[in-house]
Amino acid sequence: MIDLRTLREEPDRLRASQRARGEDDAVVQTLLDLDERRRGALSRFESLRAEQKSIGKSVSRASGEEKAALLDRAKELATQVKSAESEAEKLAAELDELLQTVPNIVEEGAPHGGEDDYVVLEEIGDKPVFDFEPRDHLELGELLGAIDMERGAKVSGSRFFFLRGVGARLQLGLLNMAMQQAIEAGFVPMIPPVLVKPESMQGTGFLGAHASEVYHLPEEDLFLVGTSEVPMAAYHADEILDGAELPYRYAGWSSCFRREAGSYGKDTRGVIRVHQFDKVEMFSYCRPEEAAAEHQRLLAWEKEMLAKIEVPYRIIDTAAGDLGASAARKFDCEAWVPSQGRYRELTSTSNCTEFQARRLAVRFRDKDGKPQHVATLNGTLATTRWIVAILENHQRADGSVEVPKALRPFVGLDVLEPVK
């Protein structure tokens, strides 16, 4: 959550961030007022508590009327101390509850506005030109015996699917290639749990505005994760990391689950927007002053992976109003989808600065031995959705699909052929 020191010393920075996101900046003054009242109540409590201790020492040395007066004052103070402590705790709880609702401070330079106000930073690769009418990924997937949406819906409902045959091989090969790249770059491979406690989900910022997109198991009070970012961020909760060893980098392979609330009628065809998919996610803990450079490194690793599947794509700087609560800056890589004639997101990488670490109490010791909060960052390295771009950009007139060269050793095929 937001650093109280930043709130007190740079309130206009938080106000500007709120406006950039399209949020109400009046919350800043409410926070300042609550913080001032909380500190006042805490000061009163500490002052009364000090007097209470002083009188306690004096009682043993006093006698007669003086002792009686001191005892009367001690009773008054006991009531006042309890009241002041209760008031300070109440205001602290109110302040914390409100702080939990305030998104991270947007990084300077991020575009202002909403979903459509992104800035294109770079376009890479040439869009394919076909001398035939290109098929979309679902038609290709059905021809190849790779995607079965009909039986997915029969078994589990809408937005579920089976990957079978070369579809399963393609996803496994893709994710294995992503994990191999991550390992070679120094990431520790992880297969994390996909059910997490409320404090893990809350700590990463996923139970705020986007809580409706999360699956909840009420009997166990556990949540299905929409990304392995959640368990990897909570992995070091309540720990003090070795500052000399930073950055800590992990690559998590997991299934991910999203309710897709509010997306009814959108992307209902194929595997673009589904309730369950697999993903390899990079996650980094680093010093706050190194977070911007680490963000660029994550983006570079995403670009390296995209080059391997040989699809045209662009990089966008996501506008502040389209950032998640935890992100201060986010870059998306969007691949060209021929059947739609537009770019669709394949990866994103976010710099969450100290926002998540503050909520999860993840710290390191600085050169003076003082605990400081780390910065956390995340970035997608491959997901099920990549199959869409691979199939559509590498298709042939007969419905076969050429497997990108770098991916062939992982899939075990050079060409995916239609099934008879």
Outline the structure in words:
- This protein has 420 residues and is an alpha+beta fold.
- It contains 13 helices and 18 strands.
- The strands form 5 sheets. An 8-stranded mixed sheet has the order 1-11-12-13-16-10-9-4. Strands 5-7-6 form a 3-stranded antiparallel sheet. The protein has a 3-stranded mixed sheet with strand order 8-14-15.
- A hairpin with a 5-residue loop joins strand 14 (362-365) and strand 15 (371-373).
- Helix 3 packs antiparallel against helix 4.
- The longest helix has 36 residues, at 64-99.
- The chain starts with a helix and ends with a strand.
- The model has no long low-confidence stretch (mean pLDDT 92).
Q: Topology of this protein?
A:
Blueprint: H1 4-9, H2 11-21, H3 26-59, H4 64-99, E1 119-124, H5 137-143, E2 147-148, H6 149-156, E3 162-163, H7 166-184, E4 188-190, E5 195-196, H8 198-203, E6 215-217, E7 222-224, H9 229-234, E8 239-241, E9 248-257, E10 276-286, H10 291-309, E11 313-317, E12 329-337, E13 342-351, H11 355-360, E14 362-365, E15 371-373, E16 375-383, H12 386-393, E17 401-402, H13 408-411, E18 415-416
Parallel strand pairs: 4-9, 8-14
Antiparallel strand pairs: 1-11, 2-3, 5-7, 6-7, 9-10, 10-16, 11-12, 12-13, 13-16, 14-15, 17-18
Helix pairs in contact: 3-4, 5-12
